[in-house]
Amino acid sequence: MSNEHRHNHPPIEPEVFLSELKTELHSHGYRFTPQRKQIIDVFLDRHGHLTPRDVYDHLEQLSAAIDQATVYRSLEFFSRLGILHTSQIAGQTVFELSQAVTHHHLVCRKCDEVLPLDDHHFDQLVEHLWAEHKFKAELSHVTISGLCSKCT
Amino acid sequence: MSNEHRHNHPPIEPEVFLSELKTELHSHGYRFTPQRKQIIDVFLDRHGHLTPRDVYDHLEQLSAAIDQATVYRSLEFFSRLGILHTSQIAGQTVFELSQAVTHHHLVCRKCDEVLPLDDHHFDQLVEHLWAEHKFKAELSHVTISGLCSKCT
DNA sequence: TTAATTATTGCAAATTTTTGCAGTAATAAC
DNA sequence: GTTATTACTGCAAAAATTTGCAATAATTAA
């Protein structure tokens, strides 16, 4: 299904990814510090949505003593660069690698049910935004709120 | 422009709105307490995006001594009912009346520029979601992240 | 190599947000 | 009416998140 679509990426090769990331950061005058590397490692290891807490706990298990403030600052830093993607799910702020497989959700505001949503729904919208506004919409993880069929 | 579109509403009549809200809450077994009324009053008075702090401060000015916990709980309560709409803007959680005039934004993740976006872009998407999933998407305040023309 | 500059971190404090629970107020049952 | 039930609030404590600043580490310039 959605695996043939526009937004998807091949599986991540950790070494390649890390070295490209390093170059990317350096080209902006930023640094790829050990702390930042370890935080990215967590995402490469544990795919999916992670809260700042998840990241912090996982680092502790690896006995990587990184301050909470650094974790928060790094997550924001990577989000701004588009390396991580952030969203609000069930009232929690969660992060994931932007390269992770594209997926969208319909979330019912009444019962919190989550329905998966196929990629193609946004193709036209993305084209319009580019044509009319020269805006490069990054719609790889859309969450749409509303009422599901049971709660209508 | 967007004033002729689907999602827009006539200006809010405070008395009508409040009495309808009261009925709405009662029909669900909830209560329209003085605290909840005062919080809604703030939104009727000061239109636009408000942080929990804004609401709390405004209430203090009116010497309405409402506990912060109550403010947070009420904002979440009204959001879940669809009375208020919540979104993340520039890293802050903000609330506004769902009935407020529809508007959408394109936000550049690099320079934080905000571009207004017309309503009609979502018509087709909303129809599709209803046709295919019987999901009533509530797309009155969409924020799309990406790169603006200058930052591409 | 050394000095100067800049980005980044850790720590501690401040701020914001959430939570448990006892008390209060409204509604429903009798 | 009175009592029982349930929703809601305030308070105080806990947890999560942000911030200022001095110290550190990396990069750049000399």
The SSE order of chain A reads: HHHHEEEEHEE
What is the terminal-to-terminal distance of chain A? 28 Å
Largest sheet of chain A: 3 strands, mixed
**If you compute it from the alpha carbons, what radius of gyration of chain A comes out, rounded to the nearest whole angstrom?**
17 Å
SSE topology sketch:
2 copies of one chain form a homodimer.
Chain A: H1 14-27, H2 34-45, H3 52-61, H4 68-81, E1 84-89, E2 92-97, E3 104-108, E4 114-117, H5 123-133, E5 136-137, E6 143-147
Parallel strand pairs in A: 3-6
Antiparallel strand pairs in A: 1-2, 3-4
The structure holds a DNA duplex (30 and 30 nucleotides).
What does this structure look like?
The structure is a homodimer of 152-residue chains. The first copy, chain A, has 152 residues and is α+β, with helices and mostly antiparallel strands. In chain A, 40% of the residues lie in helices and 18% in strands. Chain A has five helices and six strands. Chain A has helices at 14-27, 34-45, 52-61, 68-81, 123-133, and strands at 84-89, 92-97, 104-108, 114-117, 136-137, 143-147. Chain A has a three-stranded mixed β-sheet, with no helix packed on it. Chain A has a two-stranded antiparallel sheet with strand order 1-2. In chain A, a hairpin with a 5-residue loop joins strand 3 (104-108) and strand 4. The longest helix of chain A is centred in the first third of the chain and has 14 residues, at 14-27. Mean pLDDT of chain A is 83; it is low at 1-9. The interface between A and B is medium-sized, with 32 and 32 residues. Strand 6 of chain A pairs antiparallel with strand 5 of chain B, so a sheet runs across the interface. The structure holds a DNA duplex (30 and 30 nucleotides).
